[in-house]
Design goal:
By secondary structure, the protein is mostly helical. It has 6 helices and 2 strands; from the N terminus they run αααββααα. Helices cover about 50% and strands about 10% of the residues.
């Protein structure tokens, strides 16, 4: 609640992020009731609606479990973020300029990692477009 007694509402994107965060925090599918209990403050129907939207967007997968369904994330959070960044750059009239403005915003460890990714080539060369995936990160989906 706010200071004047009004209830603060979370936007749809924030709710979707909370649900995804709950799913990423475990290695097993969760039911809507389990997600509701973990997040708190949301009605069961709200959680179910959010899961339906995430499913329709391809962000969660539904596992049939008898009459009730359990959900799991369709993508690793880093993969989802990378795809969002790619779509954003594709929509930008000046993607190179956007990248140039991103670099100063990076933390030092992010800058070091980016340098390493750009200079590492799985075929043994140096930075000809393709980069290695850092240890522990899932491989990007292969093109058909």
């Amino acid at each position: 609640m706010t200071g004047d007694g009004k209830v603060m509402r979370r936007c749809a994107g924030a709710l979707e992020n909370e649900v995804l965060t709950a799913l990423w925090a475990t290695d097993r599918p969760l039911t809507p009731a389990e997600i509701q209990a973990g997040i708190g403050g949301l009605a069961y129907n709200t959680v179910h609606t959010i899961l339906k939207r995430l499913y329709d967007k391809g962000l969660v997968l539904r596992d049939a479990d008898g009459r009730r369904g359990a959900y799991r994330p369709a993508k690793h959070p880093a993969q989802l973020t990378a795809e969002l960044l790619r779509r954003t750059l594709d929509q930008c009239p000046d993607p190179i300029g956007a990248l140039a403005r991103l670099i100063p915003l990076l933390r030092p460890e992010e800058t070091r990692a980016l340098r390493g990714f750009l200079t590492t080539d799985p075929d043994g060369g140096t930075g000809h477009g393709r980069t290695a995936v850092p240890d522990g990160a899932p491989e990007p989906d292969a093109a058909p």
